[in-house]
Each structure stands twice: as C-alpha cells, then as structure tokens.
Design brief:
9-stranded mixed beta sheet; 11 helices; homodimer; 410 residues; alpha+beta; L-amino peptidase D-ALA esterase/amidase; 7-stranded mixed beta sheet
Amino acid sequence: MTHLTVTPDTAGITDVPGFEAAGVPCDLRQKNDPKRLDLALLFSLRPCTAAGTFTKNTVKAAPVLLCEQHLAEGGTFHGIVANSGNANACTGADGLRDAHATAQRAAASLNLKPSSFFVCSTGRIGQPLPMDRLVKGLERAVSEKGRTPAHGRKAADAILTSDTRAKTVTVTFTYDGKKHVVAGLAKGAGMIQPNMATMLAFLATDFSVPRSFLQKTLSEAVAGTFNCISVDGDMSTNDTVLILANGYSGVSVGDKSPRELRVLFAEAVWKACDALADKIVSDGEKITKVVEVRVAGAASSEDAEKVARAIGNSLLVKSSWNGEDPNWGRLAAAAGCAGAKLNEAKLDIFYNDTPAMTAGKPHADLKPKWKEIVRARRFTVTLNLHLGKAGYRLLATDLSEGYVNYNKSE
Amino acid sequence: MTHLTVTPDTAGITDVPGFEAAGVPCDLRQKNDPKRLDLALLFSLRPCTAAGTFTKNTVKAAPVLLCEQHLAEGGTFHGIVANSGNANACTGADGLRDAHATAQRAAASLNLKPSSFFVCSTGRIGQPLPMDRLVKGLERAVSEKGRTPAHGRKAADAILTSDTRAKTVTVTFTYDGKKHVVAGLAKGAGMIQPNMATMLAFLATDFSVPRSFLQKTLSEAVAGTFNCISVDGDMSTNDTVLILANGYSGVSVGDKSPRELRVLFAEAVWKACDALADKIVSDGEKITKVVEVRVAGAASSEDAEKVARAIGNSLLVKSSWNGEDPNWGRLAAAAGCAGAKLNEAKLDIFYNDTPAMTAGKPHADLKPKWKEIVRARRFTVTLNLHLGKAGYRLLATDLSEGYVNYNKSE
C-alpha cells in the first residue's frame, strides 16, 4: 500500500527536482515600495509538458490570452513569469504586446523560445504594465534564480496580493522504490482586492507526462477543488492554473501506465490542488468562517451545484454566518432561489450532523446545538433534497463588514 | 392632452373611492411591543376583480400559496389581510392551515366568502404564526377600519419590517371629465431583515377592469419596475404584488376601451409600481447609493438583463460604490462573468454621460469627473456592448458594512 504525504507550507516548486525559482521586488505597484516582492520566475532545467485551466470570464486579461495561445501551440515549456500588483487586464492591444514582450525577454535571457514561457499577472485592472520596471526585475530574477527552499518561498511570496500568507504545498509518494513529487504555490481568489483580481496556482511534477494525460488529470482536479470554492462569487479576468511536468525522475505516467501509478498521480495532483484551494478560502479577505456546503439528493448535478452556489453566494446567508446565527430559514430561501428542482416538503437541512429541518419541518428544540456548531471557525451545512442521487460540495465563506470596508476603494 | 399626477407619500389605498383600511398592533413579533402596528386590513365596499404576481422562489410561503389558489379560483375579492413580524414561511401544512384560517376569520367577520380575501405575511421564516394574537388583531381591524387618510396610513405602517418609512403613492388622471385613481402601498424588498423576507405591494383602482386585462396590465408593469430592482440579489419566499379593481367609478377599462384610456390606465399602474419600487430601493437596508445600471447594445434582452444583474449583484462592485470609488474595471470584470455575449474591444462604459472606457480603452484623464459623479447619492452607469439592439435597466444599491452588521443575526 502506497501512501501520499501532503505537506503544507513548504518551499513549493523548488521541492520538485529540476525546478528553480526566484522572487524579486520591482515596485510594479509604483507605490515606492522597493522591498515588496512582486515578480516570480519559475524555471525548469529541462523542457516540460504543460496543461492549464483558465477563467471563464468573457473579459480575459492579456496574459491569459498568451497562456492559452502558447498551450494551443503545443510545444514544450520551460517556465512561468508571474507578477503581482498589476493584472494587465482591460489593457487592449498594448497589454497583449506587453505580455508577449515579457515572454520574449525571459526567453532571450535564457536562450529559449518565447513560446516556452507562460506569463501570468494579478493586481489592478486597467493600468498599463510598467514594462521598464518589469524588465529590470526579470533580469534580476534570471540572475538570482536557484533551487533552494528560500528561492521557492520568495517566488510564493512574490505572487501574493491581498493574501495574508504564502500558499504552498508538497505532495510526495513512493512508487516502485522511487520518490515522486507534485508541488505548487498559489495566491488568493474570490477575496479580490480593490482592482485586484485573480486566483493563480502553479503546480509542478518530476514525472514525464504526455500533454493530453496531464490536461485531463489537471482538469479533473481543478473541477473538484479550485472550481468548488467561493468567497464573493466574482470570477476574475486572470484566474489561471498551470502544471508543468519536467520528467526529471525519468519515470513516465500516462494512459498506458499501471492503474496504481495513474491513480496515485491523479490523487497527488488532486491533493495538491485541494490543499491550495483550501488555503485560498481560509485566507479569504477578512473572513471569519469557512463553511462546507454539501448538497445531496439533487435531481441532477447541475441542480446540486446551483443550490450549493445559491447558498454560498447569498449575502443574507453569508452575513448570518458572520453573526454566528444558525439561520436555516435563509438557507431554505436561498436554495429556493437557485432555479433547481426542489420540494420544500422533502427538504432536510443539517448543521454538521444535527438536523435543523427534516422533510420540511424545523427542529426548533435543537437550536442550542446549531448555535454551538456555527460558533466554530469551520462547519458544514448539508441540504438533502431527496429528489435524486446527485450531489455537490462547495467551500464557502462568511461576509464580514471588514470585506466591505477593504473593498471600498483602491 | 391628459396628464397623470403622481403623488408620493399619500394615504395610499384610502385615496381610492370605495376602499377602507385599518392598521392595528397585535404583537406578532412576540417581543412585548404592544404599540407597533403589525396587521393591516384592506377592504373594498364592492366586490373587486384582482390580479397578482408572486415570488419565483421554489420555496413559497403559505400565504403565497393561498393567494395563488384564490386567484386561480377566479371569483371576486373584497380585500387583503397582511401581517408583518412573521412570514409564515417554511411552516409546512400548519402554516397553510393558519393562512386559510386567517382568510376564513376575516370573511366570517364581514359575512363574505373566505375566497374573497387574500392573505400576505412578512417577517421571520420558520416560526408558527401566533394565531390567537392575529385573530384578536383581525377583529379589532374589522371594527376599526375606515376610509380616512389616517386609516390608509396606519395600514401602510402595519406592513413594514426593516423599512425606515412607509411607502405609498397615488396616481390620478382625468378622462372624459371624470377623475380616476390608482393608489398603493408597499414594504421593502431585497433589503431583507434577519429572517425577514419580503417585498409586498398592494394596489387599488376605482375602475372596473376585467380580470385578464388587469393581470396583463399588472404583469407588464411589474416586469419593468419591481422586477428591475436589486438590493442583495436574494429573492424572498413571500414576494407578492396584488391589484384590486372595485369599479366604484362606474367606468370600465379593458381590451375594447378607447386606446387613449387603455394607455392612460396602463401608464397609471406602471407609474404607481415604479414609484413604489423606487421607494423600496431608496429605503434599502443601510444603503448609501442608488445606482441605475443601464445596459445597451446587447445581442439579446436576456444578455442585457444578465449583464445588468451581474453588475448590480457583484459584491466587489457594490463595495466600490459604497466607497465612492469609480472602479470601472470591476464593472467590466462583472460584465464578463455574466455569461452573456460580450466583446471587450467593443465595450463602452459611462458614469452618467462621462466615458470611463470606449471600445475597450480607458479614458484615464476623465477620472476626476468619474470621482465626482459617484459621490452623488444617485448616479447611472451605462454599458454599451455594441453587439445588438437589446437593453435593460436595473435599479441597484451599494453594499455597506451596516448591511452586514444588520443581517448578522436575528
């Protein structure tokens, strides 16, 4: 029996053999903050296959367009240049030119093709990227990059915006006597700072993985992790998840690998995504609660997701969580707004394992128990619709006065 | 040329000939608040035709089910019993029994059929209606009802919950030498108090109006007014709009009436709904801004509505309005999330008449102007998608720390 080890708060990408990193300050916020790290370079010594998932927002930032284009071209990759402080979104043709110039610059410094670099940005929307500062920073990052944990940590710090802490994870397992690694770093989503917008996550592994298998593995993991979190219901113009596989271990994993290896690899990628997604929610802007919304017994998966999101995005529900008020009536009302098949007379609602309502009837006598449950920083609300077999799980947060205050202005 | 006169803050329903009203206290909140008016009776001396529109929430409160049933039975009507302090929602079979008992009680006191009364409730969800108190109050309302402005005002007060002021309007016009009236009263929507949930509006006219024509007129007015407001995006279990036509003036309006009369009547109902909807938004819980979101040039009406609602319901957008920050980037990002056809390179965004972005390019030089505009209590944001001819208008509000605080708990 093989075990996966999931370690949070690691060095992230430099835990994967053959990966180097750098995090440097270049004052992209132009706020005279010369020490704040705001440019990360992730670099693989060997060429990688890559896969990615991107925001569904119709308004896509320039770097997202570049990443999609480079992925579609289907070559091999060597790294990622990611900056915070400026989203390079709603910047039109100039923005796209700047994103490509960034990839070209990184490639030129390392004697590689521009298409071997991804570019990601997060920060203020609608501001031209200060390319002179970025280029200087990039040159410094190229000269400073390295494979120590300190290098990995600096990169993880450099992509943060309103996050209060760096987000990294390393998943290891042994297969056939050999240790393998999937590691990653991320920055906050949903909790979007003024004019900031983005969830970014970068994963890496030392397996050799064919592109299509890598994409399938990543897409499945993202669907069950990053896509199941909600802080404020807003989807950013820049959301990006990328994975690079450099084959440093000399071991391949793909459609024809033994089932055990395929499962282990998929599980490792999933766990890495899950750990980073959880960190993103838990570090949501000014949140005080992380609430797992579970919907069961829905007539369809779409219905289950609609109900979970209606609850996780309801201002009334989120405000009541903030106030530690077990307001199951608001849960029922929000579920009713979801546009899903629902029969009040069959509806069960639970706080953790304690029923609030079963078959449409409240259990008022259990109110002291609900009150105790919602006092915890983390709890679960479960809705069973008793109309079918479909379910969904969403990790949501409360809404605090601090969130509103924080997002009032730039 | 005939003019409509729209007068806000009137006596409401008692301005319509043949209508009586009462507002009495019966402490339905059970908070030992014996002076707070919480039961309204609206009564027509003559039988009325009626029409209604109701919440689309799958979870419908018992009184909504009763109203829908009575309307479907298609008889004539004499009035409405409406209480605040208890929504009679998520109360199962007992709740439905209580709603019917309320109609029966009103009918018995006035020698009428139970089906001639509508019943509406607003307040806490999931609490049994204290029927003993309600019945006592109802008897008092029957004995106290009258047609003075004071009676009308008491009824308007009795349906309020978290509203800070009563909401009434009277629309008058002269046709063929005779004065006609459409008047109404309402209570707040969207701005839903803890466990409170509901927008209620009751309209009345002294025309004689066939049922189907009355329903068509009301539905069209509601679609363009009450359905175009958004405070927190939550749809209540109890939302109800009713109109009663008692024919007291002896004049009929219907499909075969002269065009001028039909148009005038429809306009009067629309203006009454519009005035009440506007009052509801302006009195939203702890709001500081009323923002008219206009979408033009959409490929379809559905797309236009999606974009307007995505903007009006975005926490990030609403927070920035609260902070008087002209954050057009968030408007573009929210529009991109709407699931509507949108091309960033064609998008125009305006604050009032000042461009923030045209054809995807920001006008940073005009920022001082935008800042000045969003300082007003009321302003307009317009998005022209330049993809078609469809448009939508939504009246939205900001989101304040006060809202979150207010909705933390019961």
